[in-house]
Design brief:
The chain is mainly α. It has 20 helices and 10 strands. Strands 7-6-5-4-8 form a 5-stranded antiparallel beta sheet. It has a 3-stranded antiparallel beta sheet with strand order 2-1-3, covered by helices on one side. Strands 9-10 form a two-stranded antiparallel ribbon. A hairpin with a 3-residue loop joins strand 5 and strand 6.
């Protein structure tokens, strides 16, 4: 809209930008309605026994779109003639409108060439307004259909869902900042937010809470999958009874698919302990399945446990909250005391416990919200309550994660910050330190007097050249390392030690290949080699080395070459 007039100033382009934000909100709502309407019309066309008109299918699509926002529907066509409420929101279907609103609010604030960027408040207001205008039109259109909306539920929670998704989109476009609190907030909160440590703890607590909720949902989904496999035959019978043709079976399958996240929340509530209600007179928990359930025929509901007291298999569902508590402890300590961190860089026990406690509170709050969205009425009287009780489920999640996460975080922190034990010389990574202390130096072995006398008998020119060579190499002249093979020639010595082919002063300049020592004789090690390598094995026959000067420089001096090899 603004691409044709890139020269507009900020003041001149402000109305156009706000109109663009309003249009983006309306388009997001239209995309949601259109996608559901296309799916419903396809199923209506493919059904050979459909007794409704296209208008009835469109009314049903409008009702499903409003139900995805959390609005409560009223079903008029019941057997008793009494309108029945439908308040269970398919959580997978609710992802579509939430994502569309979030994306619309985020993209409006993305700068584009030739279009001024609106303010965050203006973008939020116009996107929400455009979306709610389309929502009001859809609600008005569907009021005479088979699934009409309950008017109070349009404000709460439907409008609240739209506002929250748009606010999240604006926050994402701004870089997810943690800004200062309002001016009316307490001074202590301002001071706490001004400290970087507080923000670090708050971010860790939020991420840890999200991880705990994810583990609870994953564990609940695993419980549902195991129960469906255990009761595969009843679930199959229920699926066949509800659908006569292939179009009906596709409809039942899609309905079961969008209710899979709800089933995961129910499974998490079952593992936490409070369980869920199957009507006003029945409750399902790991301890017992009590009352007379009002079970409508549906494949997911066919996976319920047997009525009566629970068994060991039912009690094993407690592993789900145990895993969530361990996750809270692990994610907290991963930031409080990372592997390899020093004790002074780690968080204190109080900070670690406080972060784990905040994560437990967040996990309980998130679980309570999901439990409230996953349940609701399916009718009147006995069907007025279906699903987990939100406050009991949230309290159970808080208790499990706090009782397991806080002690677990403290224990894991203490384990990571423990004093390292003694490290042997053979362990990898030891460079002369054990337990953070320098390794004691090895005392030199005493040198016999005969060896000292032999070493002092080395000619002075040879010692001078050796000292000069050491000085040219930084004083770190290394001897070749024994490879463990005996009987190698001069080529092997040169590959191992660099200048192993050299001969000492007073020795022949051209030296034949070394012959293996006789079995009855004891190898004789030169004194200088014994002084350099005190810990050699028995039978070790090193070469006698000279400084690292090239051999041809030495042989070029006849007075230092020594006797020839033929003499």
């Amino acid at each position: 809209m603004t691409g044709s007039s890139p020269s507009l100033s900020a003041e001149q382009g402000r109305p156009a930008v706000l109109a663009y934000a309003l249009l983006r909100g309306a388009v997001a709502a239209g995309l949601g309605v259109g996608s559901i309407a296309v799916l419903v019309l396809m199923l209506w066309i493919s059904s050979p026994t459909s007794d409704s008109s296209p208008g009835g299918a469109l009314h049903a699509a409008a009702g499903l779109w409003l139900l995805a926002h959390g609005a409560e529907l009223i079903r008029a066509g019941t057997l008793s003639g009494v309108p029945a409420p439908v308040g269970i929101v398919p959580l997978l279907l609710a992802v579509v409108p939430v994502w569309l609103v979030h994306r619309a609010a985020r993209d409006v604030l993305v700068p584009e060439e030739g279009r001024p960027v609106p303010s965050e408040a203006g973008a939020f207001t116009m996107v929400v307004t455009g979306y709610l205008l389309v929502g009001a039109a859809v609600a008005y259109y569907g009021r005479g259909g088979p699934l009409s909306v309950h008017p109070p539920s349009l404000l709460f929670p439907a409008a609240l869902v739209v506002v929250g998704a748009a606010a999240a989109g604006v926050w994402t476009a701004a870089g997810r900042p943690v800004g200062p609190p309002p001016s009316w907030a307490p001074v202590s909160l301002h001071e706490a937010l001004a400290r970087g440590r507080f923000r670090e703890h708050a971010g860790t607590a939020c991420r840890t809470a999200a991880a705990g909720v994810s583990v609870l949902l994953g564990g609940g989904a695993l419980l549902v999958a195991v129960a469906l496999m255990w009761h595969a035959h009843p679930a199959q019978q229920s699926f066949v009874q509800l659908s006569g043709d292939w179009a009906g079976r596709v409809s039942v399958f899609l309905l079961a698919l969008v209710l899979v996240p709800n089933a995961a929340v129910w499974g998490a509530a079952y593992g936490l302990g409070p369980g869920f209600a199957l009507g006003t007179a029945s409750t399902v928990t790991p301890l017992a399945f009590s009352g007379r359930p009002a079970l409508p025929g549906f494949p997911l509901l066919a996976a319920m446990p047997a009525e009566g007291p629970g068994t060991v298999l039912n009690w094993s569902a407690a592993g789900v909250p145990v895993a969530a508590g361990a996750t809270v402890a692990w994610f907290t300590v991963r930031r409080a005391a990372p592997p390899g961190a020093a004790r002074e860089d780690a968080w204190s026990p109080g900070e670690t416990a406080l972060t784990a406690a905040l994560a437990a509170v967040g996990c309980g709050a998130g679980t309570a919200v999901l439990a409230a969205a996953a349940g609701g009425p399916l009718g009147t009287r006995a069907l007025a309550e279906f699903g987990p009780v939100w406050w009991l489920t949230g309290a159970a999640a808080l208790a499990w994660t706090a009782l397991l996460g806080i002690p677990g975080a403290l224990l894991l922190r203490a384990w990571r910050l423990r004093e390292p034990g003694a490290v042997t010389d053979t362990e990898e990574g030891t460079e002369g330190e054990t337990a953070g202390k320098p390794r004691p130096e090895r005392e030199p072995e005493p040198v016999p007097a005969s060896v000292s006398a032999s070493a002092s008998a080395v000619p002075a020119p040879a010692r001078a050249r050796e000292e000069a060579s050491r000085g040219s190499h930084g004083g770190d002249r290394r001897w070749w390392r024994w490879s463990g093979r005996r009987g190698g020639g001069d080529e092997e010595g040169a590959a191992q030690g660099g200048d192993s082919g050299a001969v000492s002063a007073g020795a022949p300049a051209s030296r034949p290949a070394r012959r293996p020592a006789a079995a009855t004789s004891t190898p004789v090690t030169p004194p200088a080699a014994r002084m350099a390598v005190p810990d050699q094995d028995e039978g070790f026959e090193p070469y006698d080395f000279l400084p690292t000067d090239p051999w041809h420089e030495r042989t070029a001096r006849p007075e230092e070459a020594g006797p020839s090899g033929n003499s």
